Amino acid sequence: MKKVENINLGTVKFVIDEDAYDALENYLGTIENHFNKSEGCEEIMEDIEIRMAELFGESLHSSTAIISMKHVKHVISIMGTPEDFGANTNTSYTERKSSRKKSYSRQQGKRLFRDEDEAVVAGVCSGLAAYFGVNDPVIVRIIYTIASLFLGLPIIAYIILWIIVPAARNANDRLAMRGKPINIDSISKQVEEELYKINDTLEEIGKSFSSKKKR
Amino acid sequence: MKLENMKAQMRKGVLELCVLSLLEHTEGYPSDIIKQLKTSKLIVVEGTIYPLLNRLKNASLLSYHWKESKTGPPRKYYFITNEGKEILTEMRGTWNQLNHAVIETTKQN
What we know:
The complex is a heterodimer. Chain A has nine helices and two strands. Chain A is mostly helical. The longest helix of chain A has about 30 residues, at about 185-215. The two termini of chain A are about 35 Å apart. Chain A has two domains: about 5-85, no CATH class; about 110-180, no CATH class. In chain A, strands 1-2 form a two-stranded antiparallel sheet. Chain B has a single domain (about 1-105), classed as Orthogonal Bundle (Arc Repressor Mutant, subunit A). Chain B contains four helices and two strands, in the order H-H-H-E-E-H. The two termini of chain B are about 30 Å apart. The interface between A and B is medium-sized, with 23 and 20 residues.
């Protein structure tokens, strides 16, 4: 199940998947950053948004349909990638002037999250492992255990971290957790990987069911 | 990829002339202009046209008015100005000269 966002794109209201929203916002932000150097940036962005709204309207089959990643990719392929515009996609873009509901910034730096997918208790050690670039969370857990036994690091510290460190909820968070760049390619790759993981988990569940049946 | 860039540069040079020429006798939406330019393979991606239209409008060679659309958001309807028409004539002349010059220079002997 995914969260959706309501957006106003070129004066048209759309409902869009959370991941697609991130990709679209990144796209528009990169382009806007590129045009900031030339005159008429706002007008150009207005024209581009209007055209994209038209294209989305054409690809959605009903007025209640939701924009998903595949729609975003399709429209971007028609409009052109930021590279086609001559934009440099490696630099992070400053927040768009339009209002954004979320308060966290879109900079390229790593951010500490709890990794609930790889959690034993609450994903604190996994999150720390991701932040420090340690591939195996078990190592962090071992270090933590040793620290708690020999240095008297109380469990309360873990609980505090559990409370104050947010869980990585979506592809964007998971990318930021590992310090990966956030752009259309990385977001769609991340979403694909997550879908594969879900697929694997479902397969394993299926297998354990059928093996239980046999007994 | 460098060859693609070279080709794109060549097309870019003549795009303004073509856009002005398409709007010489009729008004048009950006999407109509794009369609025609795509048919003649002058552009591949739509994004390149918007900064161009904006430049021409800022230079007063084009202007626009808003038109309501039943099927979507209101759209900009571009038309050529008198100044634009003058510049178009000039550009056509330059293009013809250029055309001859290139043909002469690239003739295989």
